[in-house]
UniProtKB/TrEMBL annotation:
Domain SIS residue range list: 42-188, 214-351
EC number(s) from the headed UniProt entry: 2.6.1.16
Coiled-coil blocks: none
Phylogenetic lineage: Bacteria, Bacillati, Actinomycetota, Actinomycetes, Kitasatosporales
Sorted UniProt keywords: Aminotransferase, Cytoplasm, Glutamine amidotransferase, Repeat, Transferase
Protein name (database record): Glutamine--fructose-6-phosphate aminotransferase [isomerizing]
Function, as annotated: Catalyzes the first step in hexosamine metabolism, converting fructose-6P into glucosamine-6P using glutamine as a nitrogen source.
Parent sequence residues shown: 249 to 609 of 609
Predominant cellular place of this UniProt entry's protein: cytoplasm
Keyword Cytoplasm: yes
Quaternary structure annotation from Swiss-Prot or TrEMBL: Homodimer.
Organism: Streptomyces kronopolitis
Cell compartment(s), UniProt: Cytoplasm
Length: 361
């Protein structure tokens, strides 16, 4: 049931405030400035013993994992990283008993992720799942985990589930942080930020008409560059994947800091750049990257907390806590991908060559 929307992608983008609300519901504990994650199956002693976190997923779920790894490292101070499950499986990885593995998947059926989980379990590792579909194969194979509660996602490309995965990683990071050394004050700060998310998502979605106009200005591009730095980089990667999948426009994502090490050679008027520019302590560095692009006559669309002078257009998003900003900054770019694909007449809910769940190798 499309409920008045013309595609599932549009419906699912529009449902994100409710979806995030569902992910938070019943989990916040104001008394101890933490969250309860019922199915985690990891007691405080075990949580304190974790030395590393390794997150495994594919595609969009891998990008959610990259943001999640940064959140866990920032809030729980545990070294963390994400890797495509499909790569991890084949490189004979060292499996370490003090590492907490987290498998992230919308469908819970992606073969590469499932096979990575099975290999880890065979080697005696502790694996949690961060999954949308209840009772799916990955949910069953893992030792415990978090359901992301995005609700059914029908469109082949993932939008609301990505957002809920990132929110669920924020919950995990807060939970691990509060068991370890995150202060009550910081716990409370993050909880206040989480509670603001649904309202802020609706605020972003109200800007759809403006984003639609912008997409008309960029739909003629043959190729687009997406850049971000640290927290903004996985946001740029996910936005670039979304644009590719639904519009078939070629897109590259780079850390803004890497531009001068090669990709700057691509910048010219026919290669527009989408830049993620949060108002954090890297703002000046990001502005310098915009200047370098402008000096090569590149067109710039910034997603930022305030108007960017060097950009041709700025989409302003509401500010949250810096650790949670990545949750919001990708949302206008889902709409950008959607409206670009619509303008180009693409089959939005079923892009060519793609399947909703990849259950083969
Ligand atoms: C992107 C997309 C794919 C999936 C990937 C993993 O929009 O839909 O990249 O994210 O195939 O799927 P799940 O999350 O079901 O494991």
């Amino acid at each position: 049931d499309l409920g008045g929307h013309d595609t599932y992608m549009h419906k699912e983008i529009s449902e994100q405030a409710d979806a995030v609300d569902r992910a938070l519901r019943g989990r916040i504990d104001d008394r101890f400035s933490t969250v309860h994650l019922g199915g985690l199956n990891l007691d405080a002693r075990e949580a304190r013993g974790v030395r590393r976190v390794k997150i495994l997923g594919c595609g969009t779920s891998y990008h959610a994992g990259q943001i999640g790894a940064q959140m866990i490292e920032e809030l729980a101070r545990i070294p963390s990283d994400a890797e495509p499950a499909s790569e991890f499986r084949y490189r004979d990885p060292v499996v370490d008993p003090d590492t907490l593995y987290v498998a992230v998947s919308q469908s819970g059926e992606t073969y590469d992720v499932l096979a990575a989980v099975q290999e880890l379990k065979r080697k005696g590792a502790r694996v949690l799942g961060l999954v949308n579909v209840v009772g799916s194969a990955i949910a069953r194979e893992t030792d415990g985990g978090i359901y992301v509660h995005a609700g059914p996602e029908v469109c082949v490309v993932s939008t609301k589930c990505f957002t809920n995965m990132v929110v669920s990683f924020a919950l995990l990071a807060l939970h691990l942080g509060r068991i370890r050394d995150l202060s009550v004050a910081d716990g409370k700060r993050i909880i206040d930020g989480l509670r603001k998310l649904p309202g802020q998502i609706d605020e972003i979605l109200k800007g759809e008409e403006e984003i639609k106009k912008l997409s008309a200005a960029y739909a003629d591009a043959k190729s687009m560059m997406f850049i971000g730095r640290v927290r903004g980089y996985p946001v740029a990667r996910e936005a670039s994947l979304k644009l590719k999948e639904v519009s078939y426009i070629h897109a590259e994502a780079y850390p803004a800091s890497e531009l001068k090490h090669g990709p700057l050679a691509l910048i010219e008027p026919a290669m527009p750049t989408v830049a993620i520019v949060p108002d954090d302590d890297l703002l000046e560095k990001n502005r310098a990257a915009l200047e370098e692009i402008k000096a090569r006559s590149g067109r710039i669309l910034a997603v930022a907390h305030q108007e960017q002078e060097k950009a041709d257009h700025t989409i302003i998003v509401p500010k949250n806590e810096p650790e949670l900003d990545p949750i919001l900054m990708g949302i206008p770019l889902q709409l950008l991908a959607y409206h670009t694909a619509l303008a180009l007449g693409r089959d939005i809910d079923k892009p060519r060559n793609l399947a909703k769940s990849v259950t083969v190798e």
